[in-house]
Amino acid sequence: MQWVEKADEYLKDVKTYANTVDLYDVFEILIIAFLVYYILAWMKTTRSWRMLKGLIVICLFLLVVNFMHMTNIMWITENVLSFAVTAIIVVLQPELRQALEQLGEKNFLPSIGFSGSAGKKESAFTEKTVNEIVRACVEMGKVKTGALIVVERNESLKDYERTGIEVDGVVTCQLLINIFEHNTPLHDGAVIIRGNRVTYATCYLPLSDNLDLSKDLGTRHRAGVGISEATDSLTLIVSEETGGISMAYEGELQRHLNSEILKEKMREIMNMNGEEDAKGRHRRKGKGKKKDRKETAE
Question: Residue 242's closest CA among 231, 262, 256, 232?
Answer without folding.
Answer: 256
